[in-house]
Amino acid sequence: xxxxxSFRKLPKVDLxxxxxxxxxxxxxxxxxxxxxxxxxxxxxxxxxxxxxxSSDGDARHNLIAFLKAYDDATSVMKxxxxxxxxxxxxxxxxxQEGCVYVExxxxxxxxxxxxxDYKEMIGAIADGYEKxxxxxxxxxxxxxxxxxxxxxxxxxxxxxxxxGYHHPLVTGFGMAGDENAHTIADFRPAFMASGLAGRTxxxxxxxxxxxxxxxxxxxxxRRFGHMVRAIEDVKLMEEQKSILAVPEVCVSSNIALxxxxxxxxxxxxxxxxxxxxxxxxxxxxxxxxxxxxREYKIAHDHFGxxxxxxxxxxxxxxxxxxxxxxxxxxxxxxxxxxxx
Length: 340
Ligand SMILES: [Zn+2]
What we know:
The chain is of the alpha/beta class. It is 48% helix and 14% strand.
């Protein structure tokens, strides 16, 4: 039985989390006040303790409402230290839950909204990481991410700035945002231009199995943000297994956005039992009232994952992380050293 301290110590990995999605309402208020910014009146509920966004619609409408709230939360940030603080804050909290490695989706477009260019944004994030790493040893890498609903031209600009400023912490290129905006093929130039070997794209969340196939074939990704709706296509499942596809599964996000109505209908367990190389992510923890610790706990409590199976999820994530071999080896050692 897993509980308390022994569960906390189980090494965890968050392989799918958007940096601005980790801003807590408390942090948003703190940053807004020091920047003399009034947050959007729609952003918080009346208690001021939770972000407010509609979840009454279907998955696509919920995703769009959520993406608007995400941009509103980002808009309280104005300075370099804001990015450093949110990075430190999340890594510190994740490390307290036993998380040993985080891969953040970062967005040059959101950095620009804050008033920082790409280089300044990376520098600020690196500062927050250094501080957290000194305290807990947690490791972090970054996935420079284009936002699908900002369009292919904006995506190409993100790829260009990523390629133009090499930073050792930026190890992957990704795509997030509204899966139904534009076509996957529109973003192929951006993926080809980024110059990074690590690639992941959101697909098979708000859109069906076909987008998973397209992301795989057109963008040449093997890691997929969500991919959960691949379960609707038996042939696709076989194909995905044969290429060792990695679904980055974020259960609380899928439930909050109503991709699935409940745990029972969510395919996490079926993916794992089928032999897919499943990893977990908290996605936008502050908006979906979760954390990476909670995602592991949900896998245990609601999907019957044993301690050995949870460790397998962590091992999968480290094996598929966009990180150099030396750090990968250290992380695998940490997982192997975990005492049952
Ligand atoms: Zn995501």
